[in-house]
Amino acid sequence: MKPAFTIFALITLLLLSYGLYQALVAAPTEATMGNVQRIFYYHVPSAWTALLCFLANFAASLWFLARRSPQADAVAVSTAEVGVVFCTVVLLTGPLWARPVWGIWWAWDARLTSTLVLWLIYVGYLMLRKFSVGGPNPVLAAVFGVFGALNAIFVFMAIRWFRTQHPQPVFGGGPKSGIDPQMKYALMVNWVAFLALAGLLIWLRYTLERVRQRVEEAHAMKSLVEPEVRIRR
Amino acid sequence: MKFLYAAYAVTWLVHIVYLVILTRGFQRVRDEAEELARK
User: Fold this and answer.
1) ipTM exceeding 0.90?
2) What's the domain count of chain B?
3) Which of A11, A12, A131, B10 is most buried as measured by Cβ atoms within 10 A of its Cβ?
4) Pick from A35, A82, A211: which is nearest to B1 by CB?
């Protein structure tokens, strides 16, 4: 493992520990919801990180379609997979907050439904890559990724465009939006920590994908050479 | 509090499971590369 990776992993671990302290101890308790509001410090940064991963997948998909670069393909699959991981966290922590606050686990409103659809799109993207054997599957996946990103924009805007059960935006949602500065600090620390974690996971997944591509190339080369060897014999 | 702890636990569980999947992926690719080198 490269020393840069180890240093990055240590920094991420420190950030995550500090974020946990900020979320559970330092941030003030919300007046109406109580301690359950602290789920917000993991739920919201996970959602923002997932959306950024899907936007990175969009950029990598365009890059792949333009250049057919294996590096672009590796970035695309890495960002999609890590985006799905963070989106899974969002879909699990959301209902755990909703149950005590709303009295229900789920509501089929624009934000929640579009987030579920987004998750399904990228799970579909990953399945398309994994299970289609041979053929131009990275090309199909890249096209799929480009369209998937459109839904990511819809998810982000859903609480601005529609009246939803989901709370209205905390930032940039008009004069009534905003939170206590200490809460904002805890939120931002956790977002930075989750971005670092996403960066670390993408780095690992990218390395794995590049190694897998090389092994696949070696297999292809071997299968080209082997018939020749048989003919000579 | 149980919902709060459940949310935090589930977050870490998802990330840990993904790390395990990645580690197994590395192991599988390494085995494949070694097998390829042996042939």
Assistant:
1) yes
2) 1
3) A12
4) A35
